[in-house]
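User: As part of a screening pipeline, I want to sanity-check one entry by hand. Below is the sequence and the SMILES for coenzyme A. Please return the complex as structure tokens so I can compare it with the automated output.
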Amino acid sequence: MYLLGECGQWCILLSMLLVETARTFALAEEARREITTACNAAFGQDFDALFSLLPPDGLHLLGRRDGRLVTHLVLTDRRLRFGQGPWRRAAYIDAVATLPDCRGEGLAGLLLEKASALCGTSHDLFALCASRENLYRRHGFATWRGPLFLENEDASGTGEVHLEEILMLRPARESLPEAGAALTANWRPGGGF
Ligand SMILES: CC(C)(COP(=O)(O)OP(=O)(O)OC[C@H]1O[C@@H](n2cnc3c(N)ncnc32)[C@H](O)[C@@H]1OP(=O)(O)O)[C@@H](O)C(=O)NCCC(=O)NCCS
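Assistant: Here is the complex for your manual check:
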């Protein structure tokens, strides 16, 4: 259950989670540190390079309990195309992280729904790479089973990529094409899909 508040804040009443949205460029140094610290704790690996890879207009969803950042994700604009079809505007999701002592309460799921409410009309689809599928399937994502290609940095061509993770897609408007088509993404800093 969401209640839209003022100043870009949403209060999610059932879980007493206050969700703030902030663009990457507007995050103060302290907020950046909070995010990397939360990601480091959630993933058990070093996320200190996160802000060197994100575009300035990345949109962070920050879920706080009693002021403490307990869950986070970030949305960035990507271009994706199926086969030789038109480029689609995708909201690409990264750094989905809930602190270990707050897991299993639906907090990451709440952020996914909030992301959907924010970008559902402006974007054609949502995409992310996941290590497991459960969470995302429950929120309407499907595993993409076709070959994946990534544009070169100068957009002069593409190269096939073989992901160890699972690529999940969720249409924001129209339905996805039949699995099996090639899916191409634009290049991004870090070079990952
Ligand atoms: C994944 C994660 C964000 C889920 O946060 P959460 O607030 O507990 O999520 P919810 O309560 O909304 O949903 C819990 C579901 O997430 C699933 N989940 C746990 N780890 C997951 C992962 N790495 N990828 C996808 N789903 C995951 C759980 O299996 C659970 O589903 P189940 O109840 O069917 O078992 C949290 O476990 C986490 O931070 N993990 C470490 C970082 C990570 O792997 N992030 C995801 C990268 S794709």
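Points to compare against the pipeline: The first strand starts at residue 2 and ends at 4. The chain has one domain: 2-185.
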